[in-house]
Amino acid sequence: MITLTVNGVPHQVDAAPDTPLLYALRNDLGLNGAKFGCGLGQCGACTVLVDDKPAFSCLLPIAALAERKVRTIESLGTREKPGALPAAFEAEQAAQCGYCIAGMIMRAQALLERTTRPTEAELRAHMAPNLCRCGTHMRVLRAVRRAAIAMGGGVRNDAEDAL
Amino acid sequence: MHVGNCAGCHTAQGGRPFAGGRPLETPFGTVFATNITPDPETGIGRWSRKAFVRALREGVALNGDLLYPAFPYDHFTRASDSDIDALYAFLMTRPAVQARAPTNRLKEPFGFRPLVAGWNLLFLRKGPLVDDPGQSADWNRGRALAEGLAHCGGCHTPRNELGAERSDHAYDGAWTEGWYAPPLNAASPAVRPWTAEDLFAYLGTGLSATHTAAAGPMASVTRGLAQASEDDVRALAVYFASLMAHAPAAQGPPPADRGNVADAAHPEAAALFAGACATCHGPGAPMMQEGRPSLAWGTALHEGTPNDTIQVIMHGLAPPAGRSGPTMPAYGDSFSDRQLAQITAYLRARFTDKPPWPDVPGAVARVRKGGSE
After folding, report:
1. Interface contacts A/B by beta carbons within 8 Å
2. pLDDT per residue over A87-110, tens digit each?
3. Rounded Cα gap, residues B201 and B191, in angstroms
4. What is the pTM of this model?
5. Which among A54, A61, A162 has CB closest to B275?
6. Is A61 in contact with B276 (Cβ distance < 8 A)?
7. Which CATH architecture best describes the domain B255-368?
8. Cis bond leading into B109, ω under 30°?
9. Residues of A in contact with B271 (CB under 8 A)
10. CATH code, A84-162
11. pLDDT tens digits, residue range B186-196?
C-alpha cells in the first residue's frame, strides 16, 4: 500500500510502485479530471500539481510521491462555485473539445500562485509544454489573463520585446 | 554564419536575432554579447569590411578597444578571407536592431581592457591555417572550419588559468556553461567509434541513431549546422572522425542492457525508471522502434562525470518554439534530488559496464544550483 495525499486528503492506494500517478488518480481515486493524452509527457493533458509545481502525472510513478502533496483540477472549486481559473476558462469559452483543459488550468494555476503579475513572455513560456489539438491556445491565454486580473493582478504586456 | 553559431551567443533568450545582450559566465566575470546587427549606434552599422576583418583576425573593435577573448577571435583569425567576407555580407544585411548590451561585470583587474594585449601576445596566433597536402580536401576544409569559424575548441578544449585554450590538450573535453563537452579525440567516451557518416547525421540533425541526442549548448550548435551547407557539415564530420579514429571504444563489445543486475542493486530507482522513463527508453518502447539510440549508446552515461546525464533528466530536451528536434520532458520538478541521484546511478549501472560515479548526490545539488564542477 502506498499513501497518496491528493487535494489535502490522504489515501491508501493498493498499486505497484511504478504505477503512474495518473492511473492511480483515475482508476483508484475516481478523480477523472486529469486526462491520458500521449503517455509520453509531450501534450500536458495529464498535468497536475506536485508540491505546487506542474508535473506530467502520466510519467510520475507513485513511488516517487511519498510525502508530497498532489493537487488536481477537482481542488479548484465546484460546478456551482468555480475557482478563478475554471471561471475564466468558461467565460472565454477556451474549451473546444475540452480534453486538454484540466491540464491547461493546472499549469496556469501553478503560474498564478507564484505571481498574479507575470509578463506576457513568462505566461507563454510557462504554458508552452501544454498542447491543444483543437488550437484554442489564444483563448487559453486570454482565459489566464482574465483569471490573473480576477485574482488582483494582470499579465504585463511585453509581447513586443519578447518576440 | 550557421557554422559559427554566432546567434548562440549574440542572441539573448527571447531576444531579436544577433542583437546581443546574452550573458556569458566566465571565471573572470560576466561578459555580455554585443549587438552585431547593422544598427549604426548600438550595432556594427558603421563598421567597414576592414574593421570587421580586424575584429575577427586580431580582436580589435572599431574604436580600437581590445575585445575580450570570450569573443573567439583566437579561432576566427584562422577563418579564410572568403568566409569572413561572406559573414560580413550576411550580418550587414540583417535587420538593424537598436539594443545596447549591458555593461560587463568583470572581477578586478579584468575590467581593464589593455590587459588583453598581454593575453594576445601569449596566446593569439594570427592568420589562416595552411592546408595539409597529405589530407583530403574535405579534411582540410573541415579543419579550417573547426579551428576557425565553428570554434569547436571553445567548448571542447580545456582552458588554462588565463582562459586560453590549451593547445597541448586540444579537444580533450572541457567544462562549459554547466555542461561537460566530451573529448573529440582519441579520448572520446563514445561507445561506438564515430564515423564520418554518423557525425554528418548528428551534426546536421542533432541526433545520431547510434550515439546520442545533442543537448545543452551543443543543441544550438546542431540547429545552426542544420542550416549550413551540407558540404561544410560533411567536411567537419570527416575532420572529427579522423581525430577520433583511435578512440578505444572501437574495440569494446556492443553495450548490453543489464536490467536484472541494476534492478537488484537499485530497487527504488528501478520502479522510478519503469514508471517515468521506460515508456520511451525501455526495450520495445515505440520510440525505440523509431530508430532512436538506446540509452546504452548514450555518450553522457559513459563520461567520467554524471553532470550531463543529470542536466538532461532535470531540464529535459526542448527545441525552441517552432523548431523541431529531440524532445524530452524535464523531471526537475517531478523528482526530488535524492530520486534524481538514484535514477542517475541506476542508469549508469544498467546501461554501461563502467564503475559507479562517485558522489552523484553532490553532482545533482550542483546542477540544481545551476553550476557544474
Report:
1. 59
2. 999 999 999 999 999 999 999 999
3. 17
4. 0.89
5. A61
6. yes
7. Orthogonal Bundle (1.10)
8. yes
9. 16-18, 61, 63
10. 1.10.150.120
11. 999 988 889 99
